[in-house]
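Chain A, query sequence.
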Amino acid sequence: MEIESRVVASFDTEERRHYQGINTTDKKYTQIIKLISDSESQESSIDLLAASIVIGLTAQFVSFIFGWTTEYIPRLLDNLLLSSFMGLCVGVIAFAWMKDDK
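Chain A, predicted structure.
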């Protein structure tokens, strides 16, 4: 029961922790906080990666359809390679932009 109250207290403000009488220098408390913060940072990096992949694949699809319908690039293989390169570049730029924003 004591561990549960400490996990709940980790989501409270500092004033409520002092009011409830929980010692913030306790080793178990700091370990729980570390585990929570590590999992949050890992989840956010996976979310950034997934979002940048979706953006890159969308850019690849749009550029492929544009090159195919307008016949700007006459050969299908060249169109596929160019759209893949554009999607990769846009995905990397989106990842860097989102990571820098955070």
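Residues 27-70 form the longest helix (44 residues). The chain has a mean pLDDT of 78.
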